[in-house]
Amino acid sequence: MILTRKFKFDAAHNLVEYHGKCEKLHGHTYKLVVKLEGKPGKEDMIMDFSELKHVVESKILQQLDHSYLNDFIKQPSAENIAKWIWDRLYDELSRENCRLYEIQVWETENCGIMYRGE
């Protein structure tokens, strides 16, 4: 089974290693999708949605929301943001019955990245 929860955050960035309009400072309302793969545990759930929300808010959104992403991600492309999130959530969301399966970061309604680890 795949458990899914969606989140949103607003942040600014500029792509310093890119030459085009995105090298200028700009912002997005990002959509973040966190997916866990697993089997229902003792309570017949992969993970309580509220527990997942708490972990993502405390480990990710408190730092990313209304921030300048370049302060902590050298080249904050969607790819690098997804990897940064994965690296901070993987251990936090590993349980006996489940593990982090996929991170999706959407910069716009039509442009996003999926990351499943190395």
From TrEMBL:
Cofactor annotation: Zn(2+)
* The protein's enzyme class: lyase
Q: What is its EC number?
A: 4.-.-.-
Specify the domain of life of the species encoding this protein: Bacteria
This entry's comment on the bound cofactor is: Binds 1 zinc ion per subunit.
Does the keyword section mention Zinc?
yes
Similarity remark: Belongs to the PTPS family. QueD subfamily.
Annotated protein name in UniProt: 6-carboxy-5,6,7,8-tetrahydropterin synthase
